């Protein structure tokens, strides 16, 4: 077989292995190692490339953003900032049809800005928001759909683990990726609120719910008490990066320190809580490092096979326009989203398309935002919608099936698709803060 044929088979093999349940880094690393061995028939070369991939991943200074932002997210989650923001938002939207759903979206958007984790958001708001919506007679499918849809905001609003992974794969600045994610994240949150408002007007029976007039307005002091810690964190972290006063690594360290201080003042931090947060940070950091290392050797294997160049020549020969290239890319992302998680999609697909996008003069930062939003749709689609599974597991309510969660999330997946099309049509939405 030619190197090109081996490269094609290796991509197929990785997708099949991941779909069969093989751990993603193992699938990437193993298939890449074997492919290099078959192409060059040189065991030492394959081992040396593996050593280089590991060394490059471990020695990257910006990799320190991963444990720092992960630790910050875990600490503020345990400090109860998510439920506090939700309480404030709920007070503001209490008289609007679907208001609790809008409050959930708003709270998720703010919570995402200090955690960067869709899984954490799905877990927190499944416990906080869904029971309250059910208590006010909202449709269970709408209730879980709102939480599932808004939980993916954690993947695009910085600090996002997916933006960090993309920045390593595409060799882009983590700080630039964070800043580029702000406007798309806010745009997606606004689109969700508008969609809920329209659903409340056009399909009130699907939304359900009754007035929450018995809920009292919060006083300015109560609002300040519940929102000020989160706002301080957001301003310190994102403001520090935006002004250039802090690098992403320094911003992560600052956010972690502030998170610890907030947790201590709120009397939410015990030695046991701190130990669990540190352990979980270690587990998440190790898994992401493993992912990045495997992606590094995978990229080298693709280059050795000449697969990106061949794919580029193929698209050039067929004279595909920008529209059709992006159409194929988005279609591929949505299809893979039905069987793979977001990290897998980024690690497998991005190295194939980067050599095609770069010669077209397109911004790789913008391409990263498009990639993450496109891959996020997969978090809401069966059979492997991770956020939907987390919500079902967290609720543990026999009245709500996994099917209900997926059906409830479907309208929000459509809204994401509309926002994705807007981001592709107007790249300035992603790059406005950088310019």
From TrEMBL:
Where would I find the TRAP C4-dicarboxylate transport system permease DctM subunit domain in this sequence?
Answer: 11-427
Recall the GO molecular function terms of this protein's record.
transmembrane transporter activity
Q: How does it sit in the membrane?
A: Multi-pass membrane protein
Please give the InterPro entries that the UniProt record associates with this protein: DctM, TRAP_DctM
Record localization: Cell inner membrane
The alphabetized UniProt keywords are: Cell inner membrane, Cell membrane, Membrane, Transmembrane, Transmembrane helix, Transport
Give TM segment ranges.
6-38, 58-80, 100-121, 142-166, 178-202, 248-265, 277-301, 321-354, 361-385, 405-424
Please provide one cellular component term from the Gene Ontology annotations of this protein.
plasma membrane
Q: Does the keyword Methyltransferase apply?
A: no
According to its UniProt entry, what is the function of this protein? Part of the tripartite ATP-independent periplasmic (TRAP) transport system.
Would you identify the family this protein belongs to, as annotated? Belongs to the TRAP transporter large permease family.
Oligomeric state and interaction partners are given as: The complex comprises the extracytoplasmic solute receptor protein and the two transmembrane proteins.
Give the protein's recorded name: TRAP transporter large permease protein
């Amino acid at each position: 077989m030619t190197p090109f044929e081996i490269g094609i088979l290796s991509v197929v093999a990785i997708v099949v292995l991941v779909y069969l349940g093989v751990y993603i880094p193992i699938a990437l690393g193993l298939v890449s190692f074997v492919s290099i061995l078959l192409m060059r028939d040189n065991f030492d070369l394959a081992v040396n490339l593996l050593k280089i991939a590991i060394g490059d991943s471990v020695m990257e200074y910006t990799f320190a953003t991963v444990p720092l932002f992960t630790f910050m997210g875990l600490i503020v989650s345990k400090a109860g900032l998510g439920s506090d923001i939700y309480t404030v938002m709920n007070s503001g939207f209490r008289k609007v049809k679907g208001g609790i759903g809008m409050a959930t979206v708003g709270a998720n958007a703010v919570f995402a800005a200090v955690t960067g984790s869709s899984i954490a958001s799905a877990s927190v708001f499944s416990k906080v928001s869904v029971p309250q919506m059910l208590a006010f007679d909202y449709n269970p499918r709408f209730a879980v759909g709102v939480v599932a849809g808004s939980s993916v905001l954690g993947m695009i609003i910085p600090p996002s683990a997916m933006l960090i992974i993309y920045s390593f794969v595409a060799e882009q600045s983590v700080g630039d990726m964070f800043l580029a994610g702000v406007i798309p994240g806010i745009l997606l949150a606004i689109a969700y609120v508008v969609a809920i408002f329209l659903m409340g007007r056009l399909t009130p029976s699907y939304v359900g719910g009754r007035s929450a007039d018995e809920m009292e307005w919060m006083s300015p002091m109560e609002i300040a008490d519940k929102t000020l810690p989160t706002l301080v964190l957001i301003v310190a972290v994102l403001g520090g990066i935006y002004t250039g006063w802090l690098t992403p690594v320094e911003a992560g360290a600052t956010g972690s320190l502030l998170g610890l201080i907030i947790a201590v003042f709120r009397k939410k931090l015990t030695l046991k809580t701190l130990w669990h947060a540190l352990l979980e940070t270690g587990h998440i950091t190790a898994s992401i490092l493993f992912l990045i290392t495997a992606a590094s050797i995978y990229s080298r294997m693709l280059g050795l096979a000449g697969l990106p160049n061949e794919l580029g020549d193929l698209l050039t020969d067929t004279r595909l326009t920008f529209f059709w290239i992006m159409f194929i890319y988005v279609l591929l992302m949505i299809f893979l989203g039905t069987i793979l998680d977001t990290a897998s999609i980024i690690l497998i697909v991005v190295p194939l398309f980067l050599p095609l996008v770069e010669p077209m003069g397109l911004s790789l930062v913008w391409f990263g935002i498009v990639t993450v939003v496109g891959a996020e749709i997969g978090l809401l689609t069966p059979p492997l919608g991770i956020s939907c599974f987390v919500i079902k597991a967290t609720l543990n309510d026999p009245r709500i099936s996994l099917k209900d969660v997926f059906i409830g999330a479907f309208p929000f997946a459509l809204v994401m698709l509309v926002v994705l099309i807007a981001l592709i049509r107007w790249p300035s939405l992603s790059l406005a803060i950088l310019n």
